């Protein structure tokens, strides 16, 4: 490959853009220079098609959430906490179905921030719904402190995740920094979501048993 055809790679975002332009089973050749010395043996990488089965399943789950939320909003809008449940379904739809592409135009940035906010809000919204169903109890004077505690972990993780976004000098570096942060904190996000959903499920089961 002629030297003029090589693109300089200064960050991971530059590498991702080059790989995105490379067709499936095409060749992406690397020329590695260390200390001003060019390595004699070039590195050739052949990108393979990604397994998108999980992404398709998530999109279907997101559409199911949206359908349930719309049904509850328009057919059962007088039911207790119907609007809150619709908001939870809408956030779940944004989390599972909407995915940013990496082009980072206006629409892609909007989808990216929707993903970030939805990931932080979804577990807390469901726990808040379970605690306040069938009537709002968290507004009572002795229980007002519980509402900030429900949303505090998600807000803290969101604030920590925005750190790499603020430090990035380029849009691609911002997204790459946030992606690396999410990979490092996957256990924390998963543990928090699991705690929220388990607590909410126990609360709804107890309420159902009490009513029966």
How would you describe this protein?
This protein is mainly α and 212 residues long. The protein has 2 domains: 3-45, no CATH class; 98-211, no CATH class. The chain is 65% helix and 5% strand. It is built from 7 helices and 4 strands, in the order αββββαααααα. The chain has helices spanning 12-21, 53-75, 82-96, 106-132, 146-167, 171-184, 186-211; strands at 28-30, 33-34, 37-38, 43-45. The strands form 2 sheets. The chain has a two-stranded antiparallel sheet. The chain has a two-stranded antiparallel ribbon with strand order 2-3. The longest helix has 27 residues, at 106-132. It is elongated and about 75 Å long. The model has no long low-confidence stretch (mean pLDDT 76).
Write the layout of secondary structure elements.
Blueprint: H1 12-21, E1 28-30, E2 33-34, E3 37-38, E4 43-45, H2 53-75, H3 82-96, H4 106-132, H5 146-167, H6 171-184, H7 186-211
Antiparallel strand pairs: 1-4, 2-3
Helix pairs in contact: 2-3, 3-4, 4-5, 4-7, 5-6
SSE string, helices as H and strands as E: HEEEEHHHHHH
Mean pLDDT across all residues, rounded?
76
Strand order of the largest sheet: 1-4
Count of domain modules: 2
CA radius of gyration is 23 Å
| Major pleated sheet | 2 strands, antiparallel
Helix content percent band? 55-70%
